[in-house]
Automatic annotation (TrEMBL):
<dbReference type="InterPro" id="IPR000276">
    <property type="entry name" value="GPCR_Rhodpsn"/>
</dbReference>
<keyword id="KW-0807">Transducer</keyword>
<protein>
    <recommendedName>
        <fullName>G-protein coupled receptors family 1 profile domain-containing protein</fullName>
    </recommendedName>
</protein>
<keyword id="KW-0297">G-protein coupled receptor</keyword>
<feature type="domain" description="G-protein coupled receptors family 1 profile">
    <location>
        <begin position="17"/>
        <end position="264"/>
    </location>
</feature>
<feature type="transmembrane region" description="Helical">
    <location>
        <begin position="37"/>
        <end position="60"/>
    </location>
</feature>
<feature type="transmembrane region" description="Helical">
    <location>
        <begin position="115"/>
        <end position="134"/>
    </location>
</feature>
<dbReference type="GO" id="GO:0007186">
    <property type="term" value="P:G protein-coupled receptor signaling pathway"/>
</dbReference>
<feature type="transmembrane region" description="Helical">
    <location>
        <begin position="246"/>
        <end position="267"/>
    </location>
</feature>
<keyword id="KW-1133">Transmembrane helix</keyword>
<feature type="transmembrane region" description="Helical">
    <location>
        <begin position="72"/>
        <end position="94"/>
    </location>
</feature>
<keyword id="KW-0675">Receptor</keyword>
<dbReference type="InterPro" id="IPR017452">
    <property type="entry name" value="GPCR_Rhodpsn_7TM"/>
</dbReference>
<keyword id="KW-1003">Cell membrane</keyword>
<feature type="transmembrane region" description="Helical">
    <location>
        <begin position="216"/>
        <end position="234"/>
    </location>
</feature>
<dbReference type="GO" id="GO:0001594">
    <property type="term" value="F:trace-amine receptor activity"/>
</dbReference>
<feature type="transmembrane region" description="Helical">
    <location>
        <begin position="164"/>
        <end position="184"/>
    </location>
</feature>
């Protein structure tokens, strides 16, 4: 009963908070910046993760009542949205790196068009990988079940290698390297701002804004690493298809999708303001998309 309450609460909050992020960035023109488009992609994947927790609840007692085809379909959707989420976090770390380490080139390198292409590439890549990884399960759904009511999928050695390299080792390595570099540069910029506090105050203000944004995106990356590493560590034991929904690694992994919008709420004033406008239904007014929410 405790796990039912925890997972149901996580599902409702994850769906609701990420829906607020999706509506905010989609509705308010002012928020449709390259960085926020990346956050929009992450919110979409986190939104679907919140919905998938409902199906994970069905597995608490190890019983699946929706049939073998729906079992495979569930794992396909889960794989696509979680892998797209992982790849989007990598893009966010790249965006943060360029903003802090190459600020003068940021507007030229990071454009809405390039971000849209990159995000689309992440989702397409996730769709392609899922058919490569799940090909054996797609051919014979339920063939790995040992008894009726199980929902089991099995990765062969090659599929497992692809999964680990492209959605764990690769992304984690990139995120760690980029954020370490961002941290080093950010520290040097803070020192520079302290020595130039009197002269060039306009530039100092701009740098403070950049550093604050980098700190927020850095927290997103840190939360990603903390929640992802235990999950993949457990799945590599060879028992990934038989984990219960109540396992700590699974709960922590899904909790990351709830944690992201909470980070936005704490550190992004635009999210708090836009959420208030959405909840009070002021977004239904004519011209509301032009409201200043910064």
């Amino acid at each position: 009963m405790f796990m039912y309450i925890i997972l149901c609460s996580m599902s409702v909050l994850t769906v609701a908070l990420n829906l607020l992020v999706i509506i905010s960035i989609s509705h308010f023109k002012q928020l449709q910046t390259p960085t926020n488009l990346l956050l929009l992609s992450l919110a979409v994947s986190d939104f679907f993760v919140g919905l998938l927790v409902v199906f994970q609840i069905l597995l608490i007692d190890g019983c699946w009542f929706l049939g073998d085809v729906m079992c495979v379909a569930y794992y396909i959707v889960d794989y696509v949205v979680t892998s797209a989420s992982v790849e989007t976090v990598v893009l966010i770390s790249v965006d943060c790196y360029v903003a802090i380490c190459e600020p003068l080139r940021y507007s030229m390198k990071v454009t809405k068009r390039r971000v849209c292409i990159s995000v689309s590439g992440c989702w397409i890549f996730s769709f392609l990988c899922v058919f490569l990884v799940m090909k054996n399960n797609l051919q014979q759904p339920g063939s790995h079940n040992s008894c009726q009511g199980e929902c089991v999928v099995v990765f062969d050695q090659f599929s497992g290698l692809v999964d680990v390299l492209f959605f764990f080792v690769g992304p984690v390595s990139v995120v760690l390297v980029l954020y370490i570099r961002v941290f080093v540069v950010a520290v040097s910029q803070v020192r520079a701002m302290r020595t130039c506090a009197v002269h060039g105050s306009a530039r100092v203000t701009l740098k403070k804004s950049e550093l604050k944004s980098a700190r927020t995106l850095g927290l997103v990356g840190l939360a990603f690493l903390i929640c992802l590493c235990p999950y993949f560590s457990v799945t590599q034991t060879g028992q990934e298809a038989q984990f219960q929904a109540s396992s700590f690694a699974f709960v922590l992994f899904y909790f990351n999708s709830l944690l992201n919008p909470l980070i936005y709420a704490l550190f992004y004033p635009w999210f708090r303001k836009s959420a208030k406008l959405i909840i009070t239904l002021q977004v239904l007014r004519a011209g509301s998309s032009q409201i200043n929410v910064e």
